[in-house]
Amino acid sequence: MKNDHMHALILENYGDPFVYAQIDRPKPDHGEVLVRVKASGLNPLDAKIKAGQAELVKQPLPAILGIDMAGIVVEVGEGVTGFAPGDKVYGMTGGVAGLQGSLAEYVAVDAELIARKPVNLTMREAAAIPLGFITAWEGLVDKAKVFAGQKVLIHGGSGGVGQMAIQIAVAFGADVYATDNDGKKAVVEWLGATYIDYETMSVAQYVDNYTHRAGFDIVFDTVGGATLDASFEAVKPIDGHVISSLGWGSHSLAPLSSKGATYSGVFTLLPMLTGMGREHHAAILREATRMAEAGQILPLLDPRHFHLQTAEQAHTLIVNRTATGKIVVEI
User: Fold this and answer.
1) Closest by alpha carbon to 90, among 115, 120, 112?
2) If DSSP codes are grouped into helix, strand and coil, which group holds residue 178?
3) The whole model's pTM is what?
4) Do residues 69 and 93 make contact, with C-beta atoms less than 8 angstroms apart?
5) Dist. CA 13–CA 301, nearest whole Å
6) pLDDT tens for residues 251-278?
């Protein structure tokens, strides 16, 4: 490679705007591949990290953020046998724990964290999948063992995790319901779930209406706070299972314990933070590729286009919660 430099967005201080800069291009270490980034999928967690509000997932500064990535392999490091230059890949690969993120032209990533991009999806679409899909799969499949015929309730159905959770549960043959606000009704129904307006219907009402008072077999909370408490109320006794990807508060387990139901927390970033279990993320992404190519999952994207020099605006949309789907920065 003649040019050893690249453009990237640098976060120098938490809460500050990004700095667009030219820096040295990374080199792939043992077990890594160098990827020419084509798209960086943004998540609410990226905005929290940028603001310095993500207590469990610090990113030492100065830093390049961006957890989700899609791009093309341009070089492979020693010990990598599963990928070759020219491969189109995607994954949840950095932006935390000192790992370079995807808001840059190139990134060296652990080959155990990536998979081949679905052939029928664009780079933009592929970059919108990893964090949401991996979180949803770990909750529904790894923890709750979802199967056909179960009644599954997803809280926050139109969000990045919620939209993937709905589509996974539908693909497994579950009867899927999702809460959201009234403006997201069409989205929730397009994804394949029965819409529940949590603002106008109480937990007791929708449990009565949709489960004949039995409760839901699986409740997936992607919202946290009071919504997790509502999940304990909505779940079926004995073999019901509540999953949360935002269970960071203090909650009374009494409503869950009195039912003999199960709770599982999902902390998707652990393999990046600890180095353990990274290959499992690649295995989950291979399932995402299979499902996408079978027409079973498709990320809903915000129609607006962003690039490195307008990524600040993209982050603002996440903070203000004015996005109409996943936001992706093209690079």
Assistant:
1) 115
2) strand
3) 0.96
4) yes
5) 29
6) 999 989 999 999 999 999 999 999 999 9
